[in-house]
């Protein structure tokens, strides 16, 4: 459920990006935060403001629901959104909000890659996450962990491609809102199919 909540701000971002007139610097959301807007990119500025506000609301609710704490990855997502979104609004430049998903996936790739060398148990991060449901050898856990590292790197490259290379970023919003989700869910489904024989029984 918490994972699905992460997609709500992205959907709000996409909706605003596609419905706001780039020349509308009097949008109610801009007036709400007392922001003058830009010359011809108010669609991305309004969408960024909506993203930040919705993230603060959702993560604020999670902070209370989780007994006044957030998980490490939640802090990373929230802080990257606020910092890069804030820079986007301050400089009126969409480049910085486009960097959010690129950097976020690289951070996660680095966390998975380095996880076997840190922590008291020195286990790969994927083993800490799926250890209760999967039974794998140490080599199997390392291979699965590397698969996730590669997946996050590929995601970062895809975000770079759609944000800065392919058709000058025309379909960046679509990939951010839907393509990202499709690639991630496809990877997880394929992974579960391949590893179906390694699931622990309910008796265990």
Write the layout of secondary structure elements.
Blueprint: H1 2-5, H2 7-19, H3 28-32, H4 42-65, H5 72-91, H6 95-114, H7 125-130, H8 138-165, H9 172-194
Task: Give a summary of the structure in a few sentences.
By secondary structure, this protein is mainly α. It contains 9 helices and no strands. It has helices at 2-5, 7-19, 28-32, 42-65, 72-91, 95-114, 125-130, 138-165, 172-194.
N-to-C CA distance: 25 Å
Following the backbone from N to C, one meets helices and strands in this order, namely: HHHHHHHHH
Number-wise, the strands total: 0
Query: Residue ranges: pLDDT <50 for 5 or more in a row?
Result: none
Specify the oligomeric state: single chain
Helical residue percent? over 70%
| Secondary structure category | mainly alpha
């Amino acid at each position: 459920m918490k994972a699905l909540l992460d997609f709500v701000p992205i959907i709000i971002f996409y909706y605003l990006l596609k419905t706001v007139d780039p020349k509308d610097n009097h949008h109610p959301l801009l007036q709400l935060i007392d922001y003058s807007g830009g010359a011809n990119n108010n669609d991305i500025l309004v969408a960024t403001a909506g993203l930040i506000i919705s993230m603060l609301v959702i993560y604020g609710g999670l902070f209370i629901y989780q007994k006044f704490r957030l998980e490490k990855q939640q802090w990373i997502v929230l802080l990257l959104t606020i910092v890069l979104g804030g820079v986007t609004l301050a400089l009126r430049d969409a480049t910085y909000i486009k960097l959010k998903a690129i950097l976020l996936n690289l951070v996660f790739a680095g966390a998975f890659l380095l996880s076997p060398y840190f922590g008291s148990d020195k286990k790969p991060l994927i083993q800490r996450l799926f250890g209760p449901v999967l039974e794998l050898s140490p080599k199997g856990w390392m291979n699965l962990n590397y698969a996730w590292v590669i997946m996050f790197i590929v995601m970062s490259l895809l975000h770079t491609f759609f944000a800065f290379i392919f058709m000058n970023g025309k379909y960046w919003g679509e990939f951010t809102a839907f393509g990202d989700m499709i690639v991630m869910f496809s990877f997880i489904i394929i992974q579960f199919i391949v590893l179906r024989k390694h699931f622990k029984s309910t008796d265990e």
